[in-house]
């Protein structure tokens, strides 16, 4: 190199460019074998895809009244104007008999509900040009709070204790399972709606959930760490576990059938199996019996994790619709299907006239007692299919409708589903709707209006709110944006006697 290094460098570069490059240099740049290594772009679609359901049919349909104040909603109800059935006939010049009315006082304490989320400063930096994670945090917190409100509206429980689950009755069989010979102990836990959804998986706000005997857990007394550092303790929705029952099996292909007396207010039962004192969660049933064929997995929840106390009610809940229908003092319609064959239960039955016998019984009861008809029947997917099969089969004389497309007359559309049910007593068509949180084995009759004149009721059922949904962006205390979505109110039902439940239904 001379003094003029720049000029010499340029001359060398020109000379190099005139030469033919070796093959190993020409082939140095190739497509990377990994999507995240090498010199390449990253084909990422913007923004992220939100693949989860937000299903809140009750919350969407029940009116919301924002006139709540004080600490609880209070109302008086007159349920009879001549409860002694005083006769009206009078003789000349005399006055009639005196009637007596019947009234009751009701109240429901207000509850708050809400959830929180946060975004770190670094997460906000990293998501630029891809997604607004601060907006996403708020919107998903709102959606999650709506899903939780739906759970509360259907199955919240603050006042109806399930008590102690009855001790199981067991029968061993030498074939049909994989249980080894020995003495087995069984414990059962009755579940309310909130506990049932935790164990079975709600698939509302998430997808792909289900009962997993290795990882599902029955919630007992819950201790929750709050965003402000405090700890909240409340019941998770399960009854007190039963006493243990034992049975002896022989051989290596045994199974055990177990049953308990049905618990009013329960929508499912969790079953624990093992040696006495070492029982673990092994099965979940929607009826008060089960067939246990396999030993529990090693990592399954031990029954000893559950406190020896009734954890079915929560001081943070208000009473949901199912609890208000189940409560004996509310005088709603409750039918618990018989135990039947253990592990199979008793399904709904066809009346042979295009209907369901248990529905006909309920409609007669509602009209005979209260001169009303439910306006909607909420069911699970299991019951919708079962109802449709039984109505179409019609007790052996099938009902059939074939749909033919005029553009393709050689093809027919198969399959039928029952969309509504004719109340033969009142002539009213009652829609049948699947509710995403309705446990299998349970049917819920809901009444949206009363046929009573001058009832002084605008909404028979409403969310009475001291404060409807509001968002809080908390002051910064760390390098993290913190958000909360809250509401405050109570589910108010003026006529809980207008609701009904059929439960403990076998899968027919």
Q: What helical percentage do the residues reach? A: 10-25%
Residues in β-strands, percent: 25-35%
Q: Class by helix and strand content?
A: alpha+beta
Based on CA inertia axes, which overall geometry fits? globular
What strand order characterises the main sheet?
14-23-20-15-19-18
User: How far from one another are the termini?
Assistant: 95 Å
Whole-number mean pLDDT: 91
- Number of separate helices: 9
For the secondary structure, the number of strands is 23
Radius of gyration: 31 Å
Mind summarizing the main beta sheet? 6 strands, mixed
Low-confidence stretches: none
Can you walk me through this structure?
- There is one protein chain.
- By secondary structure, the protein is of the alpha+beta class.
- It has helices spanning 5-18, 23-26, 57-61, 121-126, 133-155, 193-200, 321-326, 357-370, 381-393, and strands at residues 64-65, 72-80, 102-109, 111-120, 169-173, 182-191, 221-225, 231-235, 245-249, 255-259, 268-274, 280-285, 289-292, 333-336, 376-379, 403-405, 408-413, 420-422, 429-434, 443-446, 461-473, 480-493, 500-503.
- A hairpin with a 6-residue loop joins strand 18 (420-422) and strand 19.
- It contains nine helices and 23 strands.
- The chain has a six-stranded mixed sheet with strand order 14-23-20-15-19-18.
- It is globular.
- The model has no long low-confidence stretch (mean pLDDT 91).
- The termini are far apart.
- Helices cover 18% and strands 28% of the residues.
- Among the domains are: 57-82 and 100-108 and 321-503, no CATH class; 169-305, no CATH class.
């Amino acid at each position: 190199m001379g003094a003029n290094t720049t000029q010499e460098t340029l001359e060398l570069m020109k000379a190099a460019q005139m030469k033919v490059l070796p093959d190993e240099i020409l082939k140095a740049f190739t497509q990377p074998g990994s999507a995240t290594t090498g010199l390449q772009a990253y084909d990422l679609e913007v923004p992220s895809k939100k693949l989860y359901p937000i299903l809140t049919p009750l919350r969407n349909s029940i009116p919301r009244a924002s006139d709540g104040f004080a600490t609880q909603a209070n109302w008086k109800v007159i349920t009879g104007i001549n409860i002694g059935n005083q006769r009206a006939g009078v003789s000349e010049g005399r006055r009639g008999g005196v009637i007596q009315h019947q009234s009751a006082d009701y109240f429901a304490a207000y509850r708050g509900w809400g959830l929180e989320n946060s975004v770190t400063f670094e997460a906000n930096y990293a998501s630029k040009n891809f997604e607004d994670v601060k907006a996403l945090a708020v919107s998903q917190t709102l959606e999650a709070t709506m899903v939780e409100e739906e759970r509360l509206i259907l199955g919240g429980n603050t006042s109806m204790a399930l008590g102690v689950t009855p001790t199981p009755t067991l029968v061993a069989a030498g074939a049909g399972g994989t249980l080894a010979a020995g003495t087995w102990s069984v414990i059962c836990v009755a579940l309310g709606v909130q506990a049932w959804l935790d164990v079975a998986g709600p698939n509302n706000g998430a997808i792909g959930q289900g009962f997993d005997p290795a990882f599902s857990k029955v919630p007992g007394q819950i201790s929750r760490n709050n965003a402000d550092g405090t700890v909240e303790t409340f019941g998770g929705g399960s009854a007190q576990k039963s006493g243990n029952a034992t049975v002896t099996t022989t051989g290596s292909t045994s199974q055990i059938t177990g049953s308990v007396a049905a618990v009013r207010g329960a929508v499912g039962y969790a079953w624990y199996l093992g040696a006495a004192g070492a029982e673990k969660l092994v099965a979940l049933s929607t009826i008060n019996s089960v067939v246990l064929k396999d030993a529990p997995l090693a990592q399954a929840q031990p029954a000893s994790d559950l406190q020896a106390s009734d954890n079915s009610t929560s001081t943070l809940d208000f009473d949901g619709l199912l609890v208000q229908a189940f409560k004996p003092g509310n005088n709603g319609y409750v039918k618990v299907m018989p135990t039947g064959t253990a592990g199979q239960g008793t399904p709904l039955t066809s009346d042979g006239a295009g209907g369901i016998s248990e529905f006909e019984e309920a409609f007669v009861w509602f009209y005979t007692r209260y001169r009303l008809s439910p306006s909607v029947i909420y069911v699970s997917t299991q019951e919708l299919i079962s109802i449709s099969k039984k109505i179409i089969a019609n007790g052996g004389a099938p009902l059939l409708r074939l749909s033919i497309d005029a553009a393709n007359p050689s093809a027919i559309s198969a399959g039928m589903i029952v969309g509504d049910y004719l109340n033969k007593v009142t002539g009213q068509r009652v829609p049948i709707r699947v509710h995403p949180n309705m446990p299998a084995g349970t049917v819920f009759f809901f009444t949206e209006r009363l046929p009573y004149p001058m009832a002084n009721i605008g909404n028979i059922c409403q969310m009475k709110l001291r404060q409807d949904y509001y968002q809080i962006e908390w002051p910064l205390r760390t390098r993290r944006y913190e958000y909360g979505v809250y509401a405050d109110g109570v589910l108010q039902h003026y006529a809980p006697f207008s609701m009904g439940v059929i439960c403990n239904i076998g899968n027919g």
